[in-house]
Amino acid sequence: MVLVSEATYNSCHEFLKEQLPKHFHNVRLGIICGSGLGGLVDTIDPTTKVEFHYSDIPGFVTSTVSGHSGKLVFGYLGELKTPTVFMVGRIHLYEGYTPQECTFPVRIMKLLGVESLVVTNACGALNPDFKVGDLMVINDHLSIAAMTGQNPLIGPNLESFGPRFPPVSDAYTYALRKLAFRAALETNISKDDIHEGVYTYSSGPMYESRSEARFLRQIGADVVGMSTVPEVIVARHADMKVLGLSLITNPVVTARGKDAKKEVLNEMGIETVVDDAVDTELMKANHEEVLEASARRADDLQRLMTRFADLWAKEYSH
Hints:
By secondary structure, this protein is an alpha/beta fold. The protein is built from 8 helices and 9 strands. The protein has helices spanning 6-19, 99-111, 144-147, 174-186, 210-218, 229-237, 260-267, 287-316, and strands at 29-33, 50-53, 71-77, 82-88, 116-125, 135-143, 194-201, 223-225, 241-251.
């Protein structure tokens, strides 16, 4: 296991401070852009933009997934010009990195002064009431990977960031969830298109089997994805406020599917059996549809996040 030392975090922080204009030495709002959601960075004032490729930042690993360009971008967001840092593309466990490497940028955000972190993602819907293109504000999570040992806090605790045993029962800040709903409604997103629910983290990279999907739904999950929770765990360990926002890009297949035995009995004339199950082969998820759904909702997400930043700045100005 690759563990990250406190010295590595500090040297990365010092590198960025040396490269950044002084007005970005204390950035209070951070946003992580999920699959296909990198266009959120277009909401910032282009005249204030400063960006770094992950490959140029000490301690950062590179993002290898389509839809994740791999840049750390700084700029002023919204009418109130809130200094903001964006992760344009995240790092995933399934790319071969450790949980500590995947969450390294979150602690760098903390060192840069980030107080509130917005974590966005593309995900599949388990809840049958959710449709493609809907948004979901996360109010809790199920972390299958963390519960089975893939936890970013495993290893020596870095006391300078947080305690050995942090609670996550309050992981998603209630006040920020309210601001997100207000921002959505004020930017003309229909109340029927934005929900609140439980996000499940699965390490991926495969999409879930039908039985796994039914299990997740039965234990309380509304959506499932391959990111977000490790970043949230590290953010809460460092006492950052967190908002999680999911874009529904595909329905998750939970149907039991066609019965092969019944089909053969019919074909051989042994027995006439009615099989009205759906053909699950026609419902398979793929990454292309994730990116397409993200692109269709891009403008709405940009307006929502710009308005959220202004509401946040008014609420947390000091």
